[in-house]
Design a protein that fits this description.
The chain has 413 residues and is α/β, with parallel strands linked by helices. The chain has helices spanning 48-54, 57-61, 96-102, 121-134, 147-159, 173-181, 193-207, 220-234, 251-265, 286-293, 319-328, 338-352, 358-372, and strands at 15-20, 26-28, 42-46, 92-94, 106-111, 139-143, 162-168, 185-189, 210-211, 242-246, 275-281, 332-336, 381-386. A hairpin with a 5-residue loop joins β1 and β2. The longest helix has 15 residues, at 193-207. Bound molecules: pyridoxal-5'-phosphate (PLP).
Amino acid sequence: MRDDENLTDERPTFVTHLECSATGVRYPADELHNLSRERKPLIVRYDLDGVKKALSKEALARRPSDLWRYRELLPVRRARDIVSLGEPVTPLLALPRLAKGLHAGEILVKDESRLPTGSFKARGIALAVSMAKALGVAHMAMPTNGNAGAALSAYASRAGIKTTVFCPADTPEVNVREIALQGARVYRVNGLIDDCGKIVAEGAAKAGWFDTSTLKEPYRIEGKKTMGLELAEQLGWQLPDVILYPTGGGTGLIGMWKAFAELEAIGFIGAKRPRMVAVQAAGCAPIVRAYEAGEEHAPRWEDAHTVAAGIRVPQAIGDFLILRAVRESGGFAIAVKDEAITAAVDEVARAEGLLLCPEGAATYAALKQGLADGRIGRDARAVLFNCATGLKYPLPPSDRTLDRSRPINFAAL
Ligand SMILES: *Cc1c(COP(=O)(O)O)cnc(C)c1O
């Protein structure tokens, strides 16, 4: 049980409306929405003056150490609609040995692997499912590379909502089985995630499913936004110099950028922002290509391939929002090769005892590249995101054996 005033069901909430991210046109809160009429993501807006009066840093400091501590900046109006599997504030771990070796300032890893279902998708999905419950959704559907589908399956089962999930045929077995075991109907599709997305859109039109795709659903951003809120609070309301974010659909990057604006509006931080660095895999880097070409949109990347499945997103509907945040922050977009990603998993595990997922390791590889080419300063405090547990991914073989019936040469072990 939670031990604070959250238990009273009716509590002040501050959502005023939703807003089209392209035109600024307003849409009413408390109704079910997907994209705006212009087919662009909808953004949740709050009465931030109201939040400023209602919330102090001191009151916040006394609350339980979980995602719901930021409730004034979250969209769920009634506590009874919250669908939770226990979403802890994730630790921020320093990598001092690697920082020293690289002559880098400070390297911090926000370790998201500890969230329910083993990835940061839990943040967005906890909010999406809570809002779906509040708004009476009976059947949710989603395309996934694995982690989002696992989170949706788990949270929707907990809420008693039916779920149908589509994933690329080469999605790792462990992800598909995890999704199935937690209650969703899951189908392997002979295509990539955007092909799966088209099936969901058609099912939404023909079978009445609620489309929970990245950014086609307004509340996943609000859940991912809590990464930015936590980061600010954990660092004593001083944002880091650089954030390296493994970018697929970009929900987290867009969400954190929104979080910082809201924190400034309620007087918790000043105008200083981190440089936002969008990290992609060289085999699927539409945002990097658009960034380098000075474009506002990122056309589809053909023949996408990478070991970092979570960022194998050939086309992102929020491309312009990712690129805008990266540019406004003075950051950049960078691609890293699969060999660098695999080497980074190995390096960080051996040196610091932290088993990163490939997407998280991509941010470490990108940091090294940025330090080497001078785009990241040697005195910078950099935050990397380890977005999922490394245990969900194929691990390199280990085949040493020992015959206990023979004499053991301990000196050689
Ligand atoms: C989804 C996912 C990403 C990309 O996150 P976005 O916010 O959608 O860009 C990165 N890594 C992992 C492990 C993921 O599951």
